[in-house]
Amino acid sequence: QTYAFVPIHRNVGAKPSATSQNMFTGIVEEMGTVVKLEERDDMILWDGSKGKGTELTVKGNVVLDGAYLGCSICVNGVCLTATELEEDVFKVGLAPETLRRTYLGDLKKGDPLNLERASEIGGRNSGHFVQGHIDGVGSIIDRWTDQDSLFFKVKVTPELLRYIVPKGFIAIDGTSLTVCEVDSRLEESWFTFMLVEYTQKKIIVPSKEIGDLLNIEVDVLGKYSESALAAIMPRIEELESKVKDLEDRLAKAEGK
Predict the structure, then answer these.
(1) Tens of pLDDT along 170-219?
(2) Do residues 203 and 175 touch, judged by C-beta distance below 8 A?
(3) Does the annotation mark 180 as catalytic?
């Protein structure tokens, strides 16, 4: 989904073991900053030709520890590939699909970013399995405080809300959070989440106001469950039809 560039800077870290996977936990490691977002027409493609694309330059620190060209870094919930690395800066390409699904194309110089390195399967996970594949964006329609907790109400499409359930996992701008309430009525279509006092100081969400957008990734287990159920439903319906037919035959044989 991202472009690779011919210029290669020094390798900041070693490549991971063969067992590592591009998965995240939703536990933000640091808040970085947008250095630059630009359209380029000199991207070197796989066949040596030049193409157009969007490049995001990010200032970070923690996520560059052990980073290497081609590694995955979660930026505001989006899994992106590091194409260039420097001491405290890295670059990533934003594919058209990424720009369509997220609000990354609206970023400006100086905007804060949630950053997280990819984790290894088998490692400790204090959040949940986050892929970095954004399902869509939501709009903040309300926010309020309850003692030291900060609540947000987010409007999403009904197609997205079907995968959001009370007390279920959700990734908001790459942060693993718990859903509080859900209103699935067509005219409402919103859910709420809450940030505890510690989390408020570690992520970018508290800086957002009513009307601002959030990158949303629903719990992938819900989508897998729906897919699995869709695969077996025809067989279940077929079995139910056969059972009904047998019941009708039995009733007829008994003279009922």
Answers:
(1) 999 999 999 999 999 999 999 999 999 999 999 999 999 999 999 999 98
(2) yes
(3) no
